[in-house]
Design a protein that fits this description.
Chain A: InterPro entries: Cyt-d_oxidase_su2. Chain A: It is a multi-pass membrane protein. Chain A: Pfam families: Cyt_bd_oxida_II. The complex is a heterodimer of chains A (344) and B (448). By secondary structure, chain A is mainly alpha-helical. Chain A has a single domain (5-337), classed as Up-down Bundle (Formate dehydrogenase/DMSO reductase fold). Chain A has helices at 5-39, 43-75, 78-86, 88-112, 117-134, 136-141, 157-161, 164-191, 195-226, 228-236, 238-256, 261-283, 301-330, 333-336, and strands at 146-149, 152-155, 286-288, 292-293. In chain A, the strands form 2 sheets. A two-stranded antiparallel ribbon of chain A has the order 1-2. In chain A, strands 3-4 form a two-stranded antiparallel ribbon. In chain A, helix 4 (88-112) runs antiparallel to helix 5 (117-134), helix 10 (228-236) crosses helix 12 (261-283) and helix 11 packs antiparallel against helix 12. Chain A is globular and about 60 Å long. Chain B has 448 residues and is mainly alpha-helical. Chain B folds into 2 domains: 2-257 and 313-447, no CATH class; 263-301, no CATH class. In chain B, a hairpin with a 3-residue loop joins strand 9 (383-385) and strand 10 (389-390). Chain B starts with 5 loop residues before the first helix and ends with a helix. Classes of the chains: A mainly alpha (344), B mainly alpha (448). The interface between A and B is large, with 70 and 79 residues.
């Protein structure tokens, strides 16, 4: 695998998808934990912490998602044909959930200050349904769920919904969302000096660590039956998954010992980063097995270069802005501790 | 059966999403500029009322941005879901502005978050004003980039088709297509115009409701002056748009004007109903169409009969064109009257009947935005890429579009109601008098 424009393109997109997975997990999980704490009458412990983090960044989270799907159409236009045609229903459902979440979050926190329970539950539940609605795409990309009829792709819903692989991916995505979110919020609550919230989130992080790692391993096993070729590729990268597992152990150890939550979160990001990239690498060069590789779906060279130049220029604008955002909110002690509320 | 026509269903769903989204998108493009101007005036005049104006507009703005973001995400993805064949071509030729739009959006999102949560955090209000510049710029830039994509659909260029393959792609030629300058300018100017009038409507409403506070008068005065500036800009750009159409999309102009025979010294047809090929009850302005199309009263304007029947857009777009132009004229008129009268010190603009006229102008401006987009989109039927790809060829082959229409219609209904309820609550619970009193009390407290 040489460093061609195709490889640069898919790496950029994979990176953005990864970033979306992390920031969206924090967002989706936060909604769920907020709802769960309302259900168990512990809402007063968590709500402030969660809102203080989410309010200035929820819109940014959404852009990572838009970035990914606009980018993939730009670099790999043929994906529009295959995935666009087949994903109408699952993607529309995800869109509706996303719309309800995003707008109602704004309605409630900026606008009417609604504290209605039903709404909080709905918001929390939609956070779990979203990863479930988005994750079948990963199963579809493995091949075996799309039939070509008259030259047009059709999704075989029956095969998809009866596939253990699909359900394993759904379960993994939910477990991972809750795990990532809990570790982040443990760190964030600790930064805020909020002992009760830290303890509660620490408990959730430890609870969800198990399911996250078990389902992840389970999927590798599922792939053995579903796509042997992919499974072989995964085995070749066993050492990357080993590193990932060690990072996982590190995170859990630190959380368990109540030490260094910041480092724990960094290890967690490292764990998902290695696993995510090893998974992507083993899928190479297919975007949709066996119809679409990154080579035959790639855009023309002129456009690819233009996009990469635009990407670099855009990043030059984006990184300092993101740094500013983090410095003002995530890493600003007074803001995190809620000493001052400067909301318009 | 109609329900099996996925091209038609895809059109309906796209229409539904876009019609809903553009309300919020227009507000999203224009209001940041208004907030920025209010903040700037407030700093310059050292007048707390304008700063408060900016702050209160910003609060309402967040609600509309939220819905704008989520419906924008919806249409972004729906393009690929409903028009996969078109997006394949678009990806090859016009991906650059699409990609840049996301960057602009990113930029705006980051600074909007910062702006909203740093109120009073900086001692110096000027620093806070600086944060608004990227918000307003990002908002305008994203509308520029996305309009470029739409302009490309109206006058595609920058590629060649050889045996069904796209060759010789030039992203920059695709961006700088003939429709781009007028379209971009028109979209941006009308968004500013609409927002100025929407905010003027709010001020007028408060005064009609009996608030005598100077704050509302300042708000009305500022927005009406801005309204006049953007109305003039819109009129000038509208004229250029007419000339663009005559040159590059004559069938759209001819359908809009019910102009069948190619002739010199063509009349402009206002209103009326069509009976065969004869507009009835219409007002005809001699030579005006020739002037609109080519700046010369005797210039030749191409008629509809020159085009193959299956490439002629539906003739009802005439009504849309009329609605858009009439409302545009009305907005320019009322803004002019207001500014002239307040300059001369005439009192009638403070009377209820005039305030009512101001009040209805904001919603009318939104109607004009909708009519204008419907006109431009329906006016390029049957093409999705004029001259290259029809709507039929671009549509998805998926059979579940009808169900999705129902789901999304429900969603937009809820979001629409939600926006109205939340905005009303927000301002009713905290009227300006209350907020000012609270600020006074806080300031008094600090001095003690």
């Amino acid at each position: 695998m040489t460093l061609t424009l195709e490889v640069i393109g898919i790496s950029v997109l994979w990176l953005f998808l990864f970033l979306y997975v992390i920031v969206a997990s924090i967002d989706f999980g936060a909604g769920f934990f907020n709802a769960y704490s309302a259900f168990t009458n512990k809402q007063h412990i968590l709500t402030n912490i969660i809102q203080r983090y989410l309010s200035p960044v929820w819109e940014v989270t959404n852009v990572f998602f838009v970035f990914f799907f606009v980018g993939i159409i730009g670099f790999f236009p043929q994906t529009a044909f295959y995935y666009g045609t087949t994903l109408l229903v699952p993607a529309s459902i995800a869109l509706i959930l996303l719309a309800i979440r995003g707008s109602y979050y704004a309605f409630a926190t900026y606008g009417a200050k609604i504290n209605h329970r039903g709404y909080i539950y709905m918001y929390g539940l939609s956070g779990l349904l979203l990863p479930a609605a988005l994750s079948p795409v990963l199963a579809i990309s493995e091949g075996g769920f799309i039939n070509m009829v008259d030259g047009n792709p059709h999704l075989d819903y029956w095969a998809l919904f009866t596939s253990p692989l699909m359900w394993s991916i759904v379960v993994l995505s939910i477990a991972a969302v809750l795990y990532i979110s809990a570790v982040f919020l443990t760190w964030y609550a600790n930064k805020a000096g909020d002992v009760k919230a830290t303890d509660l989130m620490r408990k959730y992080a430890l609870i969800w660590a198990g399911p996250a790692i078990i389902t992840a391993t389970g999927i590798i096993y599922e792939l053995r039956g579903h796509s042997p070729e992919h499974y072989e590729n995964l085995l070749d990268l066993w050492w990357v998954f080993a590193i990932s597992f060690l990072l996982f152990v590190g995170t859990v150890y630190l959380i368990w010992k109540r030490r260094n939550y910041g480092l724990a979160f960094i290890l967690l990001v490292g764990q998902f980063f290695t696993a995510f990239f090893a998974y992507g690498l083993s899928h190479f060069p297919y975007l949709l097995y066996p119809y679409l590789t990154i080579y035959d779906s790639f855009t023309n060279e002129t456009m690819a270069i233009a996009l990469i130049v635009a990407f670099i220029a855009g990043l030059g604008l984006l990184l300092p802005s993101l740094y500013l955002l983090f410095r003002l909110f995530l890493f600003d002690k007074d803001y995190v501790k809620g000493k001052s509320d400067y909301h318009a | 059966m109609v329900l099996e026509d996925t091209a038609l269903l895809s059109r309906i769903l796209t229409l539904l999403t876009l019609s809903f989204h553009i309300i919020y998108a227009t507000i999203g493009v224009g209001v940041p500029l208004m907030i920025m101007i209010a903040q700037w005036v407030g700093i310059k005049k050292n007048d707390d009322h304008y700063i408060l104006l900016a702050r209160r507009w910003a609060r309402g703005f967040v609600i509309t941005v939220a819905v704008g973001v989520v419906t924008g995400t919806a249409i972004g993805l729906q393009l690929s879901l409903l028009w996969p064949n078109f997006m394949q071509v678009a990806g090859n030729v016009i991906a650059l502005p699409l990609f840049m739009e996301v960057f602009a959006f990113f930029f705006e999102a980051i600074f909007l978050g910062i702006y909203l949560y740093t109120w009073d955090r900086f001692e110096d209000q000027r620093k806070h004003l600086l944060l608004l510049i990227p918000v307003a710029l990002g908002a305008a830039a994203s509308s520029v980039f996305i309009t470029i994509v739409n302009a490309f659909m109206n006058s595609p260029q920058g590629f060649e088709v050889l045996n069904g393959e796209l060759v010789n792609v030039s992203p920059f030629l695709a961006i700088f297509n003939p429709a781009m300058p007028t379209k971009v300018a028109h979209v941006v100017a009308t968004a500013f115009l609409t927002c100025a009038f929407l905010l003027a409507s709010i001020a007028a409403l408060r005064i009609i409701r009996g608030s005598t506070h100077i704050y509302h008068k300042k708000a009305l005065h500022l927005t009406m002056k801005l309204g006049l500036v953007f109305a003039i800009a819109t009129a000038i750009i509208g004229d250029f748009s007419g000339k663009y159409l005559a040159e590059y999309q004559p069938e759209k102009l001819a359908a809009a004007e019910w102009h069948f025979e190619t002739e010199e010294g063509a009349d402009l047809v206002l209103f009326g109903v069509l009976d065969g090929e004869e507009p009835k009850y219409a007002i005809r302005i001699p030579y005006a169409l020739s002037i609109l199309a080519h700046s010369l009263p005797n210039a030749e304007v191409t008629g509809l009969n020159e085009f193959p029947e299956d490439e002629v857009p539906p003739l009802w777009i005439h009504y849309l064109f009329d609605i858009m132009v009439s409302i545009g004229m009305w907005l320019a008129f009322i803004a002019f009257v207001y500014v002239a009268a307040s300059w001369r010190g005439w009192k009638f603009i403070k009377q209820k009947w005039f305030l009512w006229l101001t009040l209805i102008s904001g919603p009318l401006a939104l109607v004009a935005i909708e009519a204008g987009w419907w006109f431009t989109e329906v006016g390029r039927q049957p093409w999705i890429l004029r001259g290259y790809m029809t709507v039929e060829e671009a549509a998805t082959t998926s059979g579940q579009v009808d169900l999705m229409i129902i789901l999304f219609a429900g969603l937009y209904f809820i979001l629409g109601i939600g926006t109205i309820v939340v905005l009303l609550r927000m301002y009713k619970r905290n009227p300006i008098e209350k907020e000012l009193a609270a600020r006074e009390a806080q300031k008094g407290g600090e001095k003690e």
